[in-house]
């Protein structure tokens, strides 16, 4: 006879034999009791574009395949492993990392921020609204939609994961990510 043994995935994909228990302590409590999971993403892709390595409250770690192009915003110094840690809002595309002139809070988002994304000529724009899902005013994204550019809105954690998937498929994706912050 075989005994059935159940296995349960935790929030970071680890497997445990106990429901509602994570052996890696992957969940962190934030102010207000909302749990935010830190996630390290591993993607094996032959692409030479920017990839999101990991994210958590306060920063996003990006794999940078090349030195910044002329006119590209300076971000924190790249580590020896080709990573850059970004601690502010960011626009990321396979070719560009932009941190200048972006809103730090959801309430600061306007049509001009989304119009800036059209210059990168994406087929789809991902908007990461921070720690929780919030939708921008329809007028803010109308210019992109008129140009036939798709817009998907999600929290920043989901946008980071989705960006890597679309990037690995060779799609022309651009993401505007508001930083995940502790919410009081």
Descriptive tags:
about 180 residues, alpha+beta, Hypothetical Protein Mth938, Chain: A, 2 domains, five-stranded mixed beta sheet, four-stranded antiparallel beta sheet, 3 helices, globular, disordered N terminus
Global shape:
globular
What proportion strand? 25-35%
Order of helices and strands: EEEEEEEEEEHEHEHE
Number of strands: 13
Which architecture of the largest domain does the CATH hierarchy give at level 2?
Answer: 3-Layer(aba) Sandwich
- Total domain count: 2
Protein described:
With 184 residues, this protein is α+β, with helices and mostly antiparallel strands. It is built from three helices and 13 strands; from the N terminus they run ββββββββββαβαβαβ. It has helices at 111-118, 138-146, 156-168, and strands at 8-9, 15-16, 27-29, 35-37, 39-40, 51-56, 59-63, 83-86, 90-92, 97-98, 124-128, 150-154, 173-177. The radius of gyration is 18 Å and the shape is globular.
